[in-house]
Write a structure and sequence with these properties.
With about 280 residues, the protein is an alpha/beta fold. It has helices spanning about 5-10, 30-65, 70-75, 75-90, 105-120, 165-175, 180-195, 205-225, 240-250, 255-260, 260-270; strands at about 15-20, 25-30, 95-100, 135-140, 140-145, 150, 155, 160-165.
């Protein structure tokens, strides 16, 4: 609101409004009182909208607290509050679509899927993979008509994250083997989201990303000529797969990762702003 507009407004004569009294007379209201009235009405509307949103978030927060997922349980109370809010907001921003006869995506399932995304991004500013608006969830592995084989998960640039629920659950049944479908596919989504020009574009620190890219390229070249190593051979297909496989071990085998390749581990730690080997989840 410009200074000229305000000056003109305050030079106007007092306003008149009816009030609900015994006499139904007109009551004079000064411009300042009118502004205060507008501010009160606006505040009431904002408060009501905030309350409605909190009511929508609450079922997911309560479910997260009920499940007590390992990553969430290790956070401080302040961090748990942040984690809860991010998980609930992630769910509200996505469409969860069940694929398969008689199969449904329940609230507990939504919470676990969202938690895998938030776990990966928790050290960063809030990132919700806004390009990927739909999550397709199959009960088990599904046949890809494009690749002509069965898949357990994928990230599609048309805006889909696809998961096999059976494989997603298996990934969390053993938290120390470095195989986790949820983290793997969310890592693909994060890697792609960073380069898509939208409201979340370029959220990864460029210097940290450059360090990671240089080290990962060197590591991939070395891995191609060796049959054994900490990072499994699947990672050497391309830089996206390498990143996703490393994310799995970063969270599930953090101590081994740090001992095996401290430079690569530190590069990922700086990139994601977490250090799970030391139980530090926000640097």
């Amino acid at each position: 609101m410009s200074a000229t507009y305000l000056l003109t407004f305050f030079m106007l004569p007092p306003l008149c409004i009816r009030y609900a009294g015994k006499s139904m007379a007109l009551a004079e209201v000064t411009p300042l009182q009118a502004l205060l009235l507008v501010a009160v009405v606006y505040a009431c509307i904002e408060l009501a909208q905030y309350g409605i949103k909190q009511m929508r978030l609450r079922p997911f927060i309560l479910e997260l607290r009920r499940q007590q997922l390992p990553y969430y349980a290790t956070l401080s109370l302040v961090q748990q509050k942040q984690f809860e809010k991010r998980v609930a907001n992630f769910i509200l921003q996505k469409s969860f679509v069940a694929r398969g006869s008689g199969f449904t995506v329940t609230t507990p399932m939504k919470v676990r899927i969202a938690a895998s995304a938030v776990q990966l991004t928790f050290g960063l500013r809030p990132v919700y993979f806004s390009h990927f608006k739909t999550l397709l969830v199959y009960p088990d592995r599904y046949y890809s008509t494009i690749f002509k084989r069965y898949h357990c998960g994928e990230v599609n640039m048309r805006g889909y994250i696809v998961l096999s629920w059976a494989d997603f659950e298996n990934g969390y049944s053993n938290a120390t083997d470095g195989f986790n479908l949820g983290l793997h596919e969310m890592a693909h989504a994060l890697h792609l989201e960073n380069v898509i020009r939208n409201n979340e574009y370029d959220f990864l620190d460029r210097e940290h990303l450059q360090v990671w890219n240089n080290l990962s390229k060197s590591e991939m070249q070395q891995q191609r000529y060796t049959q054994s190593g900490f990072i499994r051979q699947q990672a050497c297909h391309d830089e996206h797969e390498f990143f996703a496989v490393c994310v799995e071990s970063f969270f599930e085998r953090s101590h081994e990762f740090r001992l095996s390749n401290p430079l690569l581990y530190d590069a990922m730690s700086q990139l994601l702003q977490q250090d799970p080997a030391r139980r530090v989840y926000q640097l």
